[in-house]
Design brief:
Layout: H1 13-16, H2 30-40, E1 44-48, E2 54-59, H3 60-68, H4 80-90
Antiparallel strand pairs: 1-2
Helix pairs in contact: 2-4
């Protein structure tokens, strides 16, 4: 169904929501989530458990904030350069 010429008040969430949701799991490596965001051009990933129940949302802002505060140190060593490369791919540059 096309929605381009419809008023926002005439649409339901089901009509505009994507059907194939890209997700990650709580135990996924942050590098993998960052790669997925860059490759799929999404800034947020729903975090779901093994049966698909939502556990939260991982945003690019979360990654940048934690990277800036060096909160990844000692667990996975996510570098600022890796974050910047992913942002460039995410935004097509």
């Amino acid at each position: 169904m096309g929605t381009r010429n419809s008023l926002a008040g005439d649409l339901t969430v089901a009509e505009i929501a994507i059907k194939n949701v890209i997700t990650c799991k709580p135990e996924d490596e942050i590098h993998e989530a960052l790669h997925t965001m860059a490759e799929k051009h999404v800034r947020r990933l729903p975090v779901v458990d093994n049966v698909g129940v939502p556990q939260g949302i991982l945003s690019m802002d979360d990654i940048i904030t934690h990277g800036d505060l060096n909160k990844w140190q000692g667990c996975c060593e996510l570098s600022a350069e890796e974050i910047i490369r992913a942002l460039k791919r995410l935004y097509g540059r």
